[in-house]
Design goal:
About 30% of the residues lie in helices and about 15% in strands. With about 140 residues, it is an alpha+beta fold. The protein has one domain (about 15-135): GHMP kinase, C-terminal domain (Alpha-Beta Plaits, 2-Layer Sandwich), CATH 3.30.70.890. The strands form 2 sheets. It has a 4-stranded antiparallel beta sheet, covered by helices on one side. The chain has a two-stranded antiparallel sheet with strand order 5-6. Helix 3 crosses helix 4. The longest helix is centred in the middle third of the chain and has 12 residues, at about 75-85. The chain is globular and about 40 Å long.
Length: about 140
């Protein structure tokens, strides 16, 4: 673990979309196919974001998507639906799931707004000074 400067602007719009179904973290890690993991250096991905100031899809690597989507195909369908809207710069799953992160806009597509089973929230990044707690980003 090390402190890093935010690679993108703190006021970058982000929409979080959480389906009603969850995933077991131990189950997802057990289902992880180590041969299908990314070989890209995470520091290169971070540098790519920092250089471009964007969260391009090729820079968003989550090796746990494969076992999560294999375990819960509806989650892959949700990600693809969100990508297909064209509203977002990048769409990816958090950690071992099941929340989907949509970067570049916090606009809710109609299918998200109309589905009472989906939780969605507009958010922004937060940061902290070394040795201090997190604070709200200035808008």
């Amino acid at each position: 673990m090390e402190s890093v400067a935010p690679p993108i602007a703190l006021n970058t719009p982000i929409l979080l979309v959480k389906p009603p179904m969850g995933l077991s973290t131990p189950q997802i890690f057990k289902a992880l196919d180590l041969d299908r993991r990314s070989t890209v250096d995470p520091l290169q991905l971070l540098a790519g974001m920092r250089e471009s100031g964007r969260v391009r899809p090729d820079l968003c690597v989550n090796d746990l998507e494969q076992p999560a989507f294999d375990t819960l195909p509806k989650l892959l369908e949700l990600k693809q639906q969100l990508q297909a809207t064209g509203l977002y710069e990048s769409v990816f799953m958090t950690g071992s799931g099941s929340t989907i992160v949509c970067v570049g806009s916090d606009e809710q597509p109609d299918f998200v707004r109309d589905d009472r089973k989906l939780f969605s929230a507009s958010t922004r990044l937060i940061t902290r000074a070394e040795g201090q707690w997190f604070s709200r980003a200035q808008r």
